Amino acid sequence: MKTIEQLLESKNIRVTAMRLLIYRFLAEKKVAVTLSDIENAFEKADRTTLYRTIKTFEENVIVHQIDDGTGITKYALCEEGCNCDIKNDLHLHFHCNNCNETICLTEHKIPQIKVPDGFVSENVNLVVKGICAKCSG
């Protein structure tokens, strides 16, 4: 398994203290987080730096964006080896209506969906809503 530094360098991302901190923060979370969650965790950090770091991570397939229907974009780390390819790497997300957490269910892949001729798929997002194991048990 690569270290965080090796992962960033392999994607031609300059290793900075803030990037390491944000990556570790995301790695510790077992749920998707909002930009506000990141801002609250790093209150003394410049908001623009946090936003640029997330965008850099997203552009380089370190995190993926999740639209869970709440109107607030969330982010989660990609699995090792993921390239967020619409044909191979998309997975299910679960949004808990009780605790409002969104969880990646990476072991549950979204099947490839064939669209009619002339249509071009750019993103597929499948969110199941309900009560998570933590809240139901």
From TrEMBL:
Entries under Gene3D superfamilies matching the protein: 3.30.1490.190, Winged helix-like DNA-binding domain superfamily/Winged helix DNA-binding domain
Residue positions binding Zn(2+): C96, C99, C132, C135
Essential cofactor(s): Zn(2+)
InterPro entries hit by this protein: FUR (IPR002481), Fur_C (IPR043135), WH-like_DNA-bd_sf (IPR036388), WH_DNA-bd_sf (IPR036390)
Residue stretches in coiled coil: none
Gene Ontology BP, a term: negative regulation of DNA-templated transcription
Pfam families named among the record's database cross-references: FUR (PF01475)
Superkingdom: Bacteria
Cofactor note: Binds 1 zinc ion per subunit.
GO molecular function: DNA-binding transcription factor activity; transcription cis-regulatory region binding; zinc ion binding
Keyword line: DNA-binding, Metal-binding, Repressor, Transcription, Transcription regulation, Zinc
Tagged with keyword DNA-binding: yes
Matching SUPFAM superfamilies: Winged helix' DNA-binding domain
Family listed: Belongs to the Fur family.
Protein name as annotated: Transcriptional repressor
